[in-house]
Amino acid sequence: MNYKKIYKSPLGNLFLLSDGKYLTGLYFENQKYFDENLLKDYLDKDLEIFEKTFAWLDLYFSGKDPKFRPDLKFIGSEYRKRIWKLLLEIDYGKLVSYKDLANAYNKVFPKEKTSPRAVGNAVSHNLISIIVPCHRVIGSNKKLTGYAGGLDRKVKLLELEKVDIKNLSY
What we know:
Helix content is 32%, strand content 15%. With 170 residues, the protein is of the alpha/beta class. It folds into two domains: 3-61, Double Stranded RNA Binding Domain (2-Layer Sandwich), CATH 3.30.160; 78-160, Winged helix-like DNA-binding domain superfamily/Winged helix DNA-binding domain (Arc Repressor Mutant, subunit A). Strand 1 (3-9) and strand 2 (12-18) form a beta hairpin.
């Protein structure tokens, strides 16, 4: 069975999805690559994982670095799961480039070389926005490139984390 809950954030509604135990999705309303019609197959229910995620989001949107993470379950190809796990290593308030992520991946999986473009594709299909911080990834040219939740939200999330974005272009 699949479950859903809505969190009203300062940046718009967030849809939380779960298999009953783990958080499997966190999407902004109207987010690219998310079909909101799928929600009709999800049951609205109060769950412990949603309570933990709400607590995490409350701290985050109050400008604090939550020092915990709700239990996550990645659904996707092995390659994408590996990239999403690398995203979890990006510290609050820090930025990395797609090239940095590709280099990190290539060090861990030297027989499966990847490129910044392939990393970008995996990052753009991140199923658990904000908690898996794809908004902290920028182009190696210091450009704030795409964000499935919208570039305006990416900027606001980075500002919330007190990232100095004055020298970044978009």
